UniProtKB/TrEMBL annotation:
InterPro entries: AfsA-like, AfsA_hotdog_dom. This is A-factor biosynthesis hotdog domain-containing protein. Residues 14-131, 184-293 form the A-factor biosynthesis hotdog domain. NCBIfam families: ScbA_BarX_GamBu. Residues 173-203, 312-339 are annotated as: Disordered. Pfam families: AfsA. GO terms for molecular function: transferase activity.
Amino acid sequence: MTSTTATLTDPKQYVGKKHQDEVLVIGWQHHTATTQTVTVQWPAHHAFYTPAPGAHSPLLLTESIRQALALVCHTSYDIPVGHRMGWEHIRFHANPAALRTTGAPVRADLRVTHSAVTRRRLGSARLTAHVIASIGNTYAGSAEIHYSAHPAVIYDRLRGRYADAAQAFAQAPAPAEPVPAHRVGRSDPRDVTLTPTGAPNRFGLRVDTSHPVLFDHPHDHVPGMVLLEAAGQAVLATAGTAVTLTGFETDFHHYVEFDAPCTLTTAPAPPGLDHRPRTRVTAHQNNRQVFTTLIATVPAATVPAATGAVATDTAGTDTTGTGTAGTGTAADEAAAPTP
């Protein structure tokens, strides 16, 4: 088996970020036709994904996976850089101990294996990826992602009147009053992605298009990473006690637009196979369900410091206790938002 290692002189062109500070990918290694390793570097403290001293958010790993898939899509599967990617389903697990900060930048290796790549005429593709993340010998997390990639001409046809990102971006109203930042594990109100509705388990999606991390360039719809952040904040706001998110299983059913309100509702869900508490979050816009997610948590006090190796998981394991991953067969016209 041959292996090719590459460093990236301008990774921004691959990972969908305008500002260099938000690019996490620093290199990659090609192992086989289906397996690559992408190396990312996390800062000692990230402006958004380190919401409190001592620990990174699990979504820093999710964002790392998003960037890794964007890279290998283009470099290993000959999908042009101009194609638009969208996630349909993701099952994700993080090891909170591995997300503890160390006071210095940390490198993580993401081993990416694609079990399915289905190409369609006119250039679209549907892919299934399995990712295992490690920091040295410590297991950091895993994910299974079903996603698609479309040429610009097909994507614009799917998006219709929303295809122009600048015009769609301009339709976003001024951000509403946020819920108190401390309720969602934040110190800066600007980082809050929820607005109160008066109901204890229902929130409005708060979109601040001037946020330098969540929106570092115009989008034609609300990105999936913003939706995942909002869902996680909704769980924190309704937990009643300090908890740490350890995993989620999410289905994106429709794009979430800027020009209409979106409401998130939380409800208790049965514990997973590991007996950890879970919460279901559903989101609706224009009287239809746009995404659903099942989020697993542990009490914050039970998260140990990151010392020594942790037994590795496999991306196919049901780490969130949510059952078998979805098939990712949502119709193209209801494709997932680009994370």
